[in-house]
Design a protein that fits this description.
Layout (H helix, E strand, L loop, with lengths): L27 H12 L6 H4 L3 H4 L4 H22 L8 H38 L9
Helix pairs in contact: 4-5
Length: 137
C-alpha cells in the first residue's frame, strides 16, 4: 500500500518548516516539536547528544584516508631511518628511535582499526536511515 510509510529520507527534514497547516498558523516542524515536548520530553535535549555533528560533518573520509597515508609514509620513513647504517653508530639514538617506532606502530594500528570502525558505522547508519550506501562520508 503506497500510504504505509515506515520511515522517511533524511532530506525530508529540511522541508518540515515549509509544510504549514491549512490556516498557516503552524508548521509541521512546530507541530512535531510540540508533540515531542508533550509526549517525549526526555528527547528535547537530544541536541546535547549531537553537539559534535556539525564539526564532524566537515571532515571527509577522503581527508581521513589522506592523513592516514601521510602517517604511513612518516612511519615507513622512521623505520627506514632506524635501520640505516648511519644510525647504527649512535646506539642511544637508535634505541630511542626504535622504541618510538614500536610505540607509534601500535598507535597507528589503533588508528587503522578506528577508521575501519568509522566506515562500518557510517554504512550501518546509512542502512538504518534507508539512504544510498554508496554515499561517502
Amino acid at each position: 500500500n503506497k500510504g504505509d510509510a515506515i520511515g522517511f529520507k533524511l532530506e525530508f527534514l529540511t522541508k518540515l518548516s515549509n509544510t504549514k497547516s491549512t490556516d498557516n498558523k503552524i508548521t509541521l516542524l512546530h507541530y512535531i516539536v510540540s508533540h515531542i515536548e508533550n509526549k517525549y520530553p526526555d528527547l528535547i535535549d537530544f541536541s546535547e547528544d549531537t553537539a559534535h555533528v556539525e564539526a564532524a560533518s566537515k571532515v571527509t573520509s577522503q581527508s581521513i584516508r589522506e592523513e592516514i597515508g601521510q602517517l604511513r609514509m612518516g612511519m615507513n620513513s622512521m623505520e627506514a631511518e632506524s635501520k640505516s647504517d648511519e644510525i647504527k653508530k649512535d646506539l642511544k639514538y637508535k634505541a630511542k628511535l626504535s622504541e618510538f617506532c614500536s610505540h607509534s606502530k601500535k598507535i597507528f594500528e589503533k588508528i587503522l582499526e578506528e577508521e575501519k570502525q568509522l566506515s562500518n558505522n557510517f554504512s550501518n547508519l546509512l542502512k538504518f536511515f534507508g539512504e544510498d550506501e554508496s554515499t561517502s562520508i
